[in-house]
């Protein structure tokens, strides 16, 4: 992921304050000297105050901070200090007076992330280079209690610290060829302090008590190079490259990933695009921490194949059609539960602790994506219409091919707006998604044992009801001599659809419980710029 912050204004002091029913925030920017500027943003939610009204058993409570200080030595050299932080807290509390079908666990979950980095950038005649050093620290604190007995079920008091260094070079070799080269790495420390009560899983497997107290120190290195070439009066564009990754903690440490892309302009407004490539993802730190033998896991391999057509209908209206396939090998699968593969399970199966595992899982995701986008170029309609179809299948050590947990099959999204005038905007957002796969409970056995037991013969064989929701929004600007105020009013989930997030076995009531997505909620607020 490559996130870029724009520079703060070096000409004016600009303050933008946002207030709404859901939270508040602001963006503040301006010059420090004639060569430097600052940009600061902050957000705070208070959705926790509206928990009951929006039909949720828990809502996030967060602070977000973003900062950029920029110093421009001259027209070709600049140095930036970038920092951001996210303080996230979510609590599940059993409330007998609530109409929400609550999970019978009291949970305190806090995740705090802090990142700070320096970025030096130098421009030259045929390109630019940049060097980045940064550090990211994330702290995980969670305690889970079974409310009827008050017994501790699980806790984690862990942290992850990564120091990253990276160099990029973008260079125009000649009139038709461009070079991109980058290299870097990171030094990571993962401190693990985890406890899990001995239990029999809903899949029917006995888990011993988990008590982990260890630290992982490891290095990751990478380098990649790509060359882009334009031919035949720039009708044909070729891009070829490769990446090498090194992860010193696992047994097979080095991976090579070639990639190739092509784009051909059939017509001045129509392009045929294609790409193939190999991508690797190293095993998660938590998988390595929970079982020492998991250092024998391989990095997950994914072969990507993409073919698409892009057509510019008008300068403001663009259409894209793509088909794709991703084939996965070396995915971690459980040795204790031979039907369980992480990508198949999703969040329904508890913590992301794979236990003893082997890199024997494999599968695919293939699909179709169609989108139509209209840019905002003045008064009138703008927006995006997208339809996508996907099909997936993954195989563990046993059980045959099963769909991935986050496979809705069909999705349809419409985001439309109408600019009535320079100071009036009306918009809507509609989303439809097919039901996600899930594994139903064996109700008879669950009732007998007083806890949830999944029907593993039907693993991911059922689907939740389809998801759909409509949001409406109106924005109005008011111009004053020293300030501009933008007021908005939004109706979320207009027709109050009871979309189901998931099912769980409520041990306190010995029955299947339901967790819902947001109910209907009006949201209003304003943004003041001065």
Describe this structure in words.
This protein is mainly beta. The chain has helices at 285-289, 342-345, 443-449, and strands at 14-20, 23-33, 36-45, 60-74, 77-92, 105-124, 127-146, 151-172, 177-196, 199-200, 206-207, 210-231, 236-247, 254-267, 270-281, 300-314, 317-334, 357-374, 380-395, 401-402, 410-421, 424-433, 437-438, 462-463, 467-479, 484-492, 500-506, 511-516, 521-529. The protein has a 22-stranded antiparallel β-barrel. A two-stranded antiparallel sheet has the order 10-11. It is globular, with a radius of gyration of 26 Å. The mean pLDDT is 87.
The radius of gyration is 26 Å
Helix content: under 10%
Number of helices: 3
Low-confidence stretches: none
- The helix/strand class is mainly beta
Q: How would a textbook summarize the main sheet?
A: 22 strands, antiparallel, barrel
End-to-end separation in angstroms reads: 33 Å
Average the pLDDT over all residues and give the rounded result: 87
Total beta-strand segments: 29
Q: What percentage of amino acids are in beta strands? A: over 45%
Dominant shape: globular
List the helices and strands and how they pair.
Blueprint: E1 14-20, E2 23-33, E3 36-45, E4 60-74, E5 77-92, E6 105-124, E7 127-146, E8 151-172, E9 177-196, E10 199-200, E11 206-207, E12 210-231, E13 236-247, E14 254-267, E15 270-281, H1 285-289, E16 300-314, E17 317-334, H2 342-345, E18 357-374, E19 380-395, E20 401-402, E21 410-421, E22 424-433, E23 437-438, H3 443-449, E24 462-463, E25 467-479, E26 484-492, E27 500-506, E28 511-516, E29 521-529
Antiparallel strand pairs: 1-2, 1-29, 2-3, 3-4, 4-5, 5-6, 6-7, 7-8, 8-9, 9-12, 10-11, 12-13, 13-14, 14-15, 15-16, 16-17, 17-18, 18-19, 19-20, 19-21, 21-22, 22-25, 23-24, 25-26, 26-29, 27-28
